[in-house]
Design goal:
This is Helix-turn-helix domain-containing protein. By secondary structure, this protein is mainly alpha-helical. The chain is built from five helices and three strands, in the order ααβααββα. The longest helix has about 35 residues.
Length: about 130
């Protein structure tokens, strides 16, 4: 579904234009790590717990991802009054609103993974020949 520049009947879809305001937002929230972080945040969670649950993410990438999500209003960061100081992250209402569509995308991926891998192997064999 595309949003046109001056209304639904204008015929020019801004979503396809390089200057569409949705592009940088999609780049920031639809990447692999953002989606995985948001899936992990079913309750307020400390940084190290997020890192443990997301096998393969580096501390640097996780920090950048959480900052981007916080900047975009998807995640809130809360400093805990502990010693040493702890930090936990949780979804905002805006971030929570993405759980359902991200969940559908995840379910679709799992349901179609075998078929996709079969297509990839078929393609790779054809290209190598």
């Amino acid at each position: 579904m595309a949003i046109s520049e001056t209304g639904a009947d204008a015929g020019i879809d801004t979503v396809y234009r390089a200057d569409c305001p949705s592009r940088p937002i999609l780049d920031q929230i639809a990447d692999k790590w953002s989606m995985m972080v948001m899936a992990v945040l079913d309750k307020p969670t400390r940084f190290n717990e997020i890192k443990r649950r997301l096998e393969g993410v580096t501390q640097r990438v996780l920090t950048q991802t959480l900052r981007r999500l916080e900047r975009n209003g998807m995640v809130v960061r809360r400093v805990l009054p502990t010693s040493p100081v702890g930090v936990e992250y949780s979804l905002t209402p805006l971030g929570e609103s993405l759980r359902e569509p991200f969940g559908r995308l995840y379910d679709w991926t799992v349901e179609n993974a075998d078929e996709i891998r079969a297509h990839q192997m078929d393609y790779d064999q054809r290209v190598q020949s």
